[in-house]
Specification:
Layout: H1 3-8, H2 10-13, E1 26-28, E2 34-36, E3 52-54, E4 61-63, H3 65-68, H4 77-89, H5 91-94, E5 96-97, E6 104-105, E7 108-111, E8 116-119, H6 123-128, E9 137-139, H7 145-153, E10 168-170, E11 175-177, H8 179-183, E12 191-193, H9 194-211
Antiparallel strand pairs: 1-2, 3-4, 5-6, 7-8, 7-9, 10-11, 10-12
Helix pairs in contact: 4-7
Length: 212
């Protein structure tokens, strides 16, 4: 699928099959289907066994990891990347919220270093900050296919430590983490580089596809 076709169908990929709205904290089941964390308890279950969950898409049953904690299912960071790109694709119709003043405007620029948008009023402030001198900001009206691809491929930011990129995968907690998380909450846990974890997951996806 080329990038234009993908962008035309991005809303379909970014919506949960249970609530039919954009994903919130998307969690991936072992069958590779994903749902919002808050939607998982709403999926009808075939039994009263609270330690298992049935996928709403393929009906396969899985044991819930982490002593029955649904949050222990791995986060689908691919979907999170789609959610990051989605506002940029909608800027011409509904505008986009500025990452600084939070004003919604279609006249904005996206900074690929900050991973956020800046409205025309705030952009001079961004460009005037000395430490931002090497940042790359591009007006949304000048976006090309390769710019959307860059957003989709860029590392996901840590939800706990603002503006820190996730670089490791904790094999104990089964989540992606940043450097700060690796030294604090996940100190002593087995960790691998995020790229290696992605390759391993990709191998699992390809294996699952071959079995179908």
């Amino acid at each position: 699928m080329d990038i234009k076709t993908f962008l035309d169908n991005i809303h379909e990929h970014a919506c949960c099959a249970v609530c039919m709205t954009r994903f919130t904290n998307p969690k991936q089941l072992p069958c590779l289907h994903s749902f919002c964390l808050h939607c998982l308890p709403r999926i009808p279950q075939p039994s009263e066994n609270r330690d298992t969950i049935s996928c709403d898409e393929c009906t396969q049953n899985f044991r819930i990891p982490g002593n029955g904690d649904l949050n222990a299912f791995p986060t689908n960071f691919r979907i999170n990347s789609l959610l990051d790109a989605l506002p940029v694709t909608e800027c011409n119709t509904i505008g986009i919220k500025c990452g600084n003043c939070e004003k919604t405007s279609a006249e904005s620029a996206y900074c690929f270093t900050c991973c956020s948008c800046w409205c025309d009023d705030c952009l001079p402030l961004h460009n005037g900050i000395k430490t931002f001198k090497e940042h790359h900001a591009l007006a949304l009206k000048d976006f090309r296919d390769e710019n959307f691809e860059t957003i989709l491929k860029q590392p996901t930011l840590c939800g706990k430590h603002e503006r820190r990129k996730q670089k490791f995968f904790c094999q104990v907690c089964n989540i992606a983490i940043c450097n700060a998380c690796a030294l604090t909450d996940h100190d002593g846990h087995a960790k691998i580089v995020l790229e290696d974890a992605a390759k391993e997951r990709k191998s699992r996806v390809n294996a699952a596809i071959e079995l179908k």
